[in-house]
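Input structure tokens:
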């Protein structure tokens, strides 16, 4: 506390000594919301109160950019501490924690096999549009994640290895990629939401699925329709997390369009925290969708999954698909019989 007040007092004293020039930088002094100043308070006292309340000291500028008039914004120190310390810890623990969980899971359980082996008969799980939207979202997310992590961890992990010049070039291009790939990512989120929301409404089956540990922990296979409880979680993390990250990101890409410096600092905190949590969640999703489960990748690769895989993980969905196929074929069969 004292360490915060001392510089403020020193600054106030400094401003006091520089009284003639202060009149120039102070500009017209306005009241402070929630703490109206005494009517006879001096300009210096008012400015001091503004600093203590986390406001800013503004000078007067003749160029159109009014932001450049800011001389002191004490909340910036909290924001810097968030970026340099808090975010690094939250991100480090989330991502390394998820990698540790995956390593333990793989070491103890190995790859989840297709029970009864592959049959060679397949069923279509995702069509071309679904896979296209998935890979557009996933591809842009991976680059956004890597270039974003570079902004938080690069100076410690990459700069010492590649040196300042290469790091500056890498980070500059990374920033361009980060800004522009936000657009396909956002579009992907909207399309995934519209295509899959109807199959991702939580229901009783999901509660049972979570109680049975998804069949991953313990024994037995909880029933699941098109998406199981874990996949619904991935869906909502993608949609809600992705929306928050996108909106806060656009606030940052277009500085001062929709909010002031305090709003941008808040947007940055939301962007950073949600992003690292989402990255950790997606590391888990990527593992299960590739190395962790035999036969899963086919769903997003060719779109065709083995019948045994489908029955094992999405039995109710298979029943539905078979019923739909019979209903489609039956009228055709009747027509053929009539010929
Ligand atoms: C880059 C590596 C990735 C791989 C290998 C991968 C793989 C897969 C696979 C195989 C499925 C289908 C699972 C099934 O048949 O039920 C799937 C579904 C899905 N993916 Fe990915 N994915 C990746 C990245 C991402 C990313 C980055 C996101 C979001 C930002 C994402 C969002 C989704 C969603 C919402 C689903 C549907 C729900 C689910 O099945 O979990 N994926 N992914």
């Amino acid at each position: 506390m004292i360490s915060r007040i001392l510089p403020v007092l020193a600054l106030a004293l400094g401003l006091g000594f520089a009284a003639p020039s202060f009149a120039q930088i102070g500009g017209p002094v306005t009241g402070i919301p929630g703490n109206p100043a005494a009517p006879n308070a001096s300009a210096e006292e008012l400015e001091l109160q503004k600093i203590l309340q986390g406001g800013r000291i503004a000078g007067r500028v003749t160029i159109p950019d009014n932001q450049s008039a800011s001389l002191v914004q004490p909340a910036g120190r909290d924001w810097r501490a968030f970026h340099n310390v808090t975010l690094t810890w939250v991100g480090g623990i989330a991502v390394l924690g998820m990698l540790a969980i995956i390593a333990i899971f793989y070491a103890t359980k190995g790859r989840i096999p297709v029970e009864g082996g592959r049959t060679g008969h397949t069923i279509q799980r995702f069509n071309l549009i679904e896979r296209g939207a998935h890979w557009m979202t996933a591809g842009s997310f991976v680059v956004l994640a890597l270039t974003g992590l570079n902004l938080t961890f690069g100076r410690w992990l990459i700069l010492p290895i590649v040196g300042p010049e290469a790091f500056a070039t890498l980070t500059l291009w990374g920033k361009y990629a980060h800004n522009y790939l936000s657009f396909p990512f956002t579009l992907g989120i909207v399309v995934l939401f519209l295509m899959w929301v109807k199959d991702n409404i939580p229901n009783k089956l999901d509660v049972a699925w979570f109680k049975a540990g998804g069949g991953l922990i313990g024994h037995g296979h909880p029933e699941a329709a098109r998406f199981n409880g874990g996949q619904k979680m991935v869906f909502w993390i993608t949609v809600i997390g992705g929306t928050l990250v996108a909106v806060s990101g656009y606030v940052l890409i277009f500085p001062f369009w929709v909010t002031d410096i305090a709003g941008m600092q808040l947007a940055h905190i939301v962007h950073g925290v949600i992003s690292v949590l989402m990255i950790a969640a997606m590391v888990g999703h990527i593992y299960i969708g590739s190395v962790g489960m035999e036969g899963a990748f086919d769903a997003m690769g060719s779109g065709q999954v083995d019948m045994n895989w489908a029955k094992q993980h999405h039995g109710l969905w298979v029943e539905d698909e078979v019923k739909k196929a019979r209903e489609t074929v039956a009228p055709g069969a009747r027509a053929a019989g009539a010929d």
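The chain has twelve helices and four strands. The first strand starts at residue 57 and ends at 58.
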